[in-house]
Amino acid sequence: MTAVGAGRIEGAHVAADAAVAPRRKPVDWGALLVHALLLACIAVVAFPLYYAFIISTQSLQEVVQRPPLLLPSSHLVENYVDAWQKVNLGQMLFNSAVMAVTIAAGKIAISMLSAFAIVYFDFRGRMLCFWMIFVTLMLPVPVRLMSTYEVIGTLGWINTYQGLTIPLMASATATFLFRQFYLTIPNEMVEAAQLDGAGPMRFLWSFLLPLSWANIAALFVVLFIFGWNQYLWPLMITNTEAMRTIVIGLEGLIPRSGTELPTWNLIMAGAVMALLPPVAVIVLMQRWFVKGLVEAEK
Amino acid sequence: MKRTVFRSRWLPYALVLPQVAVTIVFFFWPALKSLQLSVYRVSPFGDRSTFIGLENFRTLLADPEYYQSVLNSFVFAAGVTGLSVLAALVAAGLATQKIRGLSVYRTLLLWPYGIAPAVAGIIFLFIFHPAYGVLPYFLSFVTAYEFNWLLKGWVAMTLVIVATAWTHLGYNIAFYLAGLLAVPASVLEAADVDGAGPVRRFTAITFPLVSPITFYLIVLNMVFAFFESFGVIDAVTKGGPGHATEIMVFKLYKDGFIGLNLGSSGAQSVILMAMVIVLTMLQFRYAEKKVTYR
Fold first, then answer.
1. How far is A154 from chain B (nearest CA, A)?
2. Listed residue (B264, B227, B263) closest to B66, CA to CA
3. pLDDT tens, position by position, A106-120
4. CATH number of B64-293: 1.10.3720.10, 3.40.190.290, 1.10.20.10, 1.10.540.10?
5. Most A CBs within 10 Å: which of B4, B9, B23, as the mutation test of the A interface?
6. What ipTM score was computed for the predicted complex, to two decimals?
């Protein structure tokens, strides 16, 4: 449990600080400098988002004026409404949400089950299953591009939600995470459960699941963002406007012909709406996000 | 340690079935088909196929455009990895100095990870826009050089690298913060007592201690840049201008999906497969080391 360990050390930091504090000089110039540098880093990192936002509030004249106007203007509502209607953003946001939530929930569910089988059962082919799940790490979409498309076509899943989600549900990292976690659970607990007459499914449901919530939350945040930000897969699997996700649909706002006037304020409004849900999830669930990210990638 | 196990003839198979089924149908079967495609010549409509051995590979390796895409991939991966790992190390190093408000700073640095590289690419596309973008505007005061990504390949490459690195910064920062917070406070304080300044503490103690994480992150970022970066290229440059930003994954998509050259795309898939296997092996090597250092 790295997150817990790190927290403890962080706590030790604070305690040590408090102990030496009285010997320190009142103004810590070093700390002020670090604050200033950090604020500078944050400003650089935040600028692109700030810029996208202010452009999305400007009229087209303001967008193209020189020198550029680097402040928000008053056209926020009309731009967002225009963008929303122009490419049916509502439907695309809905599709993205379905895709992200289904993939995250599906990966967690099937990974919990297979990790449970691998840790708590002795069966023929156990290691084979484990290795098969592991090898999926080495088969990202591009290395099986055309033939996966063929499989989806054979199943008749082109342009369907199951086509968008089920093929992405295998997860080696989630399976490993649950496996690691189950291995930390004391054997006595299983024995006690067995003495009480609990079968395997009862044990999974009433003992393991309640203990797994922290891991589930952490994985959910990371996998939600993974699902939301998919690009190649929805581009391949969907071919109608109604099934597009927002990340690929956004591209439809950019004119490629050159005869059409590029409405950059609407494009930026679309971009802001495409990035807002996953960014909000990270900011609101930061603790789970960091835990999920750092532990799942082991 | 011997674990207590449950007994059942069929239950474990039922439990692994969903995952294993997805694995077989959508991973192993298509991967085998890719291997098979790479040694066949298939007519564009898929109705006829002839075994031709390594002919697809020979054609591919005689194609200068393919080498261009390999080179582009390496430039792109090195650029994204170098920029985002280095920037993350600096930012994370600052964020672990003993100051107040650390968690607020961390949040403010982490959020770009939520942004899809394609969406980030579109935002940077406008920042770099030759006529309306803010960056060429300010650069025009410094130099008369035209930073037009529609015409100059290296500008387009810089654009996609910066956009991708931006989204990946938060990811790297999260790993470094976890690692840097695990550097024992007592070690740093001992150095403090010995009169080592913050820079010296960082270079002599913190950096060596996080170097396993650095290697691990380099591999992870390479995997990401090689295999997960189709979106940013497709949304922003479509591989252009010319073939300047056509990375391997984009060429594979273009030859397979648009050119319907199944044999060549099969061969390209196999080469990518070899690369991802090597990178995954490296990843797990460093993952082990990372754990022992903690």
1. 11
2. B264
3. 999 999 999 999 999
4. 1.10.3720.10
5. B23
6. 0.87
